[in-house]
Every structure is written in C-alpha cells, then in structure tokens.
Amino acid sequence: MDIHDDHPDLPRLAAEGRIVAYFGYGSLVNRRTLRTKFLGIRRARVEGWRRFWLPREASAAMALLSVHPSDTHAVEGVVVYDLADHLPSVDEREAGYSRRIVDLARLQIETPPVTGVPLYIYEAHRGAADASDMQAAILQSYLDAVMQGFRTLYGAAGLRRFVNETHGFETAILRDRAAPRYPRAVSLDRHEADLFDRLVVDRGARFVDPD
Description:
Strand order of the largest sheet: 4-6-1-3-2-5
Number of strands: 9
Radius of gyration: 17 Å
Low-confidence stretches: none
Strand content: 25-35%
Structural class: alpha/beta
Number of helices: 5
Helix content: 25-40%
Distance between the termini: 39 Å
C-alpha cells in the first residue's frame, strides 16, 4: 500500500540539498493521522534505537512514545521526506524532544526515492523512569492510531512486533476510545478493537476508565 504520493519535485529538491528526513515511529505510521502534504514517506527500520513509553514531563500521569539508543534493538516505522526549511516547524511540533542524527549505515528504507539525505529521529527528554516504572497511563485513542498504522503497513506480524518490542506496556491504558482525547483519533472496526485490546493485555497492560 502506498503511504503517501511522492511530490514530483522531490528528486530535484534533494539534488539541490533542500531536503531532510525524519523517522516516525508512532502516529506518523498511520496515514489517517497525516495532516500535511509531505514530499514522500517510506517504510523503514533503524538499528540502534528502542521504542518505549515515557511519562510526560508536564504530567507523569500520562505517557508518550519515545526512543532511546540501544545497540541491541531496532525500530520499525516510516521515513518522512520534507523541506529543510520546514525543520524548525517540526522541532516546534516536537517540543519536549531532542532531534538526533541517524547513522544512515544502520537504516533500511523500502525503495528509497532519493539518497544522501540527512535523517533525524526525535528522542523525548527523560529521567530514569519509564511509563511502567511510574505507572503513567497510555491514551487508548492515541494507541489505536499507532497500532492501526502498524497493522496496515506491516501486517499482523509487524503489529505484534510493535507491541512486543516497545518497552513500558506494563502500565494503565486510559479507556477513551468512546470519547477520544487524541485530536487525530481514528475509527476501528470491531475486529481491530478486539485484537488491539487483546494484544496489549497479553503484554501486561490494564485498562482504566477516565475520571
């Protein structure tokens, strides 16, 4: 399945040095959450990083997805190609995250449209704790969007890899599917909803209701 149509000027802009790329490992994998006409997006895998649930700095009661360096792990997701001029706006959108450079030798991209483009990954500011340590809750409406994206792009096996390889699932999931708090919430069919809930419960998560 095509994630996003390439902009016809992508090769020319890359040759002019006007393109950067960043690695999406959460909601960006789901095309239904995309609100911007990126220049191109590809399935990808980067070695040397691990995805985990991290308590939000502003509220340890809630969690967000992040990554941290790990020589023994890899992360699946997407590479987003964008104009270098847009990078300050991306940095602003990813407030609370630091932009890290990715070693291109440790990156695998499906049918890359261009080469030699600098690639970044965003790592959230963190202390020592992860979501399972602090029992910070995962927002179900956000989790649904991420899991649907991985199921669509990587199939059933890829969805299970996301759940099994993401650290910190042993915490609460705030059941907000009926009244989503995530602004780009997606719709699920009954099979998807049941599958997603079963996978995260098997991983050690528990559901809690909003106050």
